[in-house]
Design a protein that fits this description.
Layout lengths: L12 H4 L5 H9 L2 E5 L3 H13 L3 E6 L16 H5 L4 H12 L4 E6 L7 H5 L4 E4 L4 H14 L3 E7 L2 E7 L7 H4 L12 H4 L3 H19 L9 E6 L4 E6 L18 H4 L6 E4 L4 E4 L9 H8 L4 E4 L3 E6 L2 E6 L4 E4 L4 H11 L3
Parallel strand pairs: 1-2, 1-4, 2-3, 4-5
Antiparallel strand pairs: 5-6, 6-7, 7-8, 9-10, 10-14, 11-12, 12-13, 13-14
Helix pairs in contact: 3-5, 3-10
């Protein structure tokens, strides 16, 4: 323990002073495990809040690394993290451990998909959404329902955000509210609509509060509505979902058909929000030797590498390779063009 007081919970005194939480809630929290998926704008605030609150084990997962435009809203990171080209999971773990060395933090540099989600969920008491796309959210929804783990959905765009808490077997799931993933190009993105950082703080704080209620043994106090906030137009809406409780037509919670978890839905490419970049995944490739790749690509252009990733700039095209075989192709939002550039310059 790093606290100087004999009481291991001394640092949480103000939190325990809230009577409805109390020491009993803190003790339960200290024995719990939270999984935070995505460490961008929402996820970095959520992870920071949960770590400082004293969750016993914090499991954080992200597939990406930090860039300059992240710093406007992803509050846990620094300019030095960008200069070192650190993966978000590694940088977040370092900063969170510096804030609270008394908890266990597990960092995973991974693209969450149907092959690894159940392993990542193992032992978790809550799943908290820090992602930016519905494919992964539907996957989290499936995993939550199958494994019986509560999860908290949250999303932001522009100055608007929304959040919903899903308790398996007790109320509607995400697919009751959003039956299918919106087709590409039909919904606003960070590129087209932008995003203001204050809405991140609002939604991430609501998600964190819901997670703390669940982890401290107060799941009965979680919100049973879809909460929508528009900070620009000063509007708050709470959408009652009681009419969806008996929705036996829902393919997920009603019919127990977990299409996303089975891998029958979802893609292996992802257009990265606000990045003009496409991520390509190659599940069959397994772990790759980054050092060997760096030696292979060095004659073709400029290569920068660390223990977690390498960045290659070849003929004005930029590629970021990760140890798990993923590649981010920069300078395009077209998956077809990204695959062509990858085949031309990186190969198999």
């Amino acid at each position: 323990m790093t606290t100087s007081n004999d009481d291991p919970f001394a640092r949480y005194a103000r939190q325990m002073s809230y009577a409805r939480f109390g020491r009993a809630g803190q003790e339960k929290l200290s024995q719990s495990t939270a999984l935070v998926v995505g460490l961008g704008a929402l996820g970095s605030v959520i992870a920071n809040t949960l770590a400082r609150s004293g969750v016993g084990t914090l499991r954080i997962v992200d597939r990406d690394y930090i860039e300059w435009n992240n710093l406007q809203r992803q509050v846990i990171y620094t300019e030095e993290d960008v200069r070192q080209r650190l993966p978000k999971a590694i940088a977040a773990k370092r900063h969170l451990e510096a804030a609270n060395a008394d908890i266990q933090i597990e960092a995973h540099i991974a693209d969450v998909d149907h092959r690894n989600i159940e392993q990542l969920c193992a032992g978790a008491d809550v799943i908290v959404d820090g992602t930016d796309n519905f494919e992964i959210r539907f996957l989290l929804n499936d995993a939550s329902l199958k494994l019986g783990i509560p999860w908290v959905y949250g999303g932001c765009i522009g100055a608007e955000g929304q959040t919903l808490t899903i308790l398996p077997g007790n109320g509607p799931c995400l697919r009751c509210v959003v039956p299918e993933s919106p087709p590409p190009g039909t919904t606003p993105t960070c590129d087209t609509a932008g995003i203001l950082s204050p809405i991140i703080g609002v939604i991430a704080s609501l998600e964190s509060m819901e997670a703390l209620k669940i982890l401290s043994g107060h799941a009965d106090q979680t919100s049973r509505t879809l909460n929508v906030f528009d900070l620009w137009d000063n509007r708050i809406r709470q959408v009652k979902l009681t009419g969806l409780v008996a929705n036996n037509d829902c393919p997920a919670c009603g019919q127990q058909n977990f299409e996303w978890l089975a891998g029958s839905k979802g893609s292996q490419t992802a257009v990265l929000c606000g990045r003009d970049a496409v991520q390509l995944s190659f599940p069959e490739s397994g772990t790759i030797d980054l050092k060997a790749f760096a030696e292979k690509l060095l004659p073709l252009g400029n290569v920068e590498a660390n223990a977690y990733l390498l960045r290659a700039t070849i003929d004005n095209h930029a590629f970021t390779l990760f140890g798990d075989g993923r590649c981010i192709v920069h300078g395009t939002s077209d998956p077809t063009e990204a695959r062509l550039l990858y085949a031309r310059y990186i190969g198999t």
